[in-house]
Amino acid sequence: MVYVIFEVKTEDAGKINELTKDDIVSRQSILTRDATSLGIDKEVLYVKIEGSEEGIKQAEDIAKEQGFKTLDSSEAETINTKIKEEEETAADGMGMIFG
Q1: Is the dihedral of CA 79, 84, 87, 89 positive or negative?
Q2: Domain range spanning residue 44?
Q3: What does the radius of gyration of the chain's CA atoms come to, in whole angstroms?
Q4: Residue 81's domain is classified under what CATH number?
Q5: How many domains does the chain have?
Q6: Digits of tens for pLDDT over the chain (99 positions)?
């Protein structure tokens, strides 16, 4: 699967709904993270959309209309790694509780 990550200013968070209400985009995997939760000192949200080529293209078109910044491959990989690390930490914590 392919993915794209958008950077959205905190004050524009409501515009993320434009992505999620689109029929094609809504069928993709959509994940939103606050920058501070990833250890990044910025007032932005990161929206990761993973899925089909068609879904990613549609998401990019809508994001452009909304003024979201599409991260280049290097930035996207860095953010994606931080998201995965956060998910692994959360999964480890759940294992300690229910293990």
Answers
A1: negative
A2: 2-98
A3: 14
A4: 3.30.1370
A5: 1
A6: 899 999 999 999 999 999 999 999 999 999 999 999 999 999 999 999 999 999 999 999 999 999 999 999 999 999 999 999 988 876 666 555 665
